[in-house]
Amino acid sequence: MTSPKIASKAVLLFFVMGISAFFLSMMQQFLMTIFMAAIFSALLSPLYERLLLSLKGRENAASLLTILIIVCLVLLPMSALIGVVVAQAIHVSQSVTPWVQRFIEQPTIISDFLHKLPYYEQILPHRDMILQRLGNLVGNTSTLLIDSLSSITKVTVNAAIMSIIMLYTMFYFLIDGKKLLSKILYYIPLENKDEQHLLQRFTSVARATIKGTLIIGIIQGALCGLGFALAGIPSPVFWGCLMAVLSIVPSVGTAIIWGPALLILILNKDIAAAVSVGIFCGLVAGNADNLLRPRLVGKDTAMHDLFILFSTFGGISMFGIIGIIVGPIIAALFVSIWEIYGESFQDFLPAVCFESKPDKSATEPAEEATAPSSATTEQNK
User: Fold this and answer.
1) Are both 128 and 86 inside the same structural domain?
2) Coil, strand or helix at 117
3) Long-range contacts of 78-84, Cβ-Cβ distance < 8 Å, separation of 24 or more
4) 163 and 197 in one domain?
5) Closest CA to 215 of 299, 80, 324
6) What per-residue confidence (pLDDT) applies to 192?
7) Same structural domain for residues 99 and 121?
8) 176-194 pLDDT, tens digit each
9) How far is CA 33 from CA 122, 314, 339, in A?
């Protein structure tokens, strides 16, 4: 290739990278919405294909019907649930504020509560410090709830707008998704088997995350909320939704909420309510993950649970609540691209093996055989 052609391709590559970066920065606030639309379109493609056959190839009607099914089965119930959760969250914040004021005016309330705890004599020397820390904790919690509720309206409006944009994008992705995907893959300089491997990992992890994280979280949150309702705890829907979100934490999960509630019920000698919380939250909801996850997820993720946990938390910290889905997908693509790298460069990568430690029992006789005896040493002298 002559130097003018090299210069021309270099300039073209520069313009491609520069204009692409400028375009992505301009579309930054919509990139996550488009990405989620692509995920849900890929998951809903089997339903779209069935509807397309039933409607005799009418793509627009099949895509529109798919969107309407999702709106009726998912978005409308979720909107109603969000309304109930917000109302109960406001009730929780309004009930916490008077409690904080009463705590400040009458600190003996906490002191009376501490009297019910076991080993009170050992706790007594640290009573003042415990009261101060509890007061700060309750005050900060109340402030956090009130500040969070003040921004609910703005978040709800933004979520509604982004949901409409996502549904509109999904309408066209369902129709032209395969054409767009083939065009994107054409510009990626990878072999077809590697591209198919990435796509398979993308869809399998997305499917496993939707089924494993969201469905199991909803089931655990519903069971725990039912236990709270039967126990007579106020705002059970709010606490159930909170436990559904916390169910992504392995081993602990929903116990972060129902554990302290169970302890308070036991200290208040409300045995019937404590039994209700223990059965529904501890026994039934606690075992739901072990029973349902192998059947719902199977081997779709092929990643370690710890890797999924940290990728989920990392996704939440970077993308918000959507990171529950996005985080594991990015982690799966990270693992897949390194696997492709290992296969492509296996001729240049050295083999790795760990040497086992020699067995002392096997080496000791040899050492005894080669070591000179004391009699031989005396003769040499």
Assistant:
1) yes
2) coil
3) 81/237, 81/241, 82/156, 84/237
4) no
5) 324
6) 82
7) yes
8) 888 888 888 888 887 888 8
9) 55, 18, 29
> Is 265 within a domain?
yes
Q: Is 5 helix (H, G, I), strand (E, B) or coil?
A: helix
Other CB atoms closer than 10 Å to residue 231's CB: what's the count?
Answer: 22
**Tokens 């000791």 sit on residue:** 364
Distance (Å, whole) CA 108 – CA 111: 5
As for how many domains the chain has, the answer is: 2
Domain span at 331: 190-346
Do residues 42 and 173 share a domain? yes
Q: Are residues 229 and 336 in the same domain?
A: yes
The first and second tokens of residue 111, run together, are 């002191």
What are the tens digits of pLDDT across the range 130-156?
656 655 655 555 555 555 555 555 566
Beta-carbon contacts of 348 under 8 Å, excluding residues fewer than 6 positions away, are none
What is the distance between the alpha carbons of residues 58 and 51, in angstroms, rounded to a whole number? 9
Q: What is the pLDDT of residue 380?
A: 47
Pair (161, 231) in one structural domain: no
One-letter amino acid of 167: L
Query: Residues 170, 232: one domain?
Result: no
Cβ partners under 8 Å of residue 367, min gap 6: none
C-alpha–C-alpha distance, residues 178 and 181, integer Å: 5
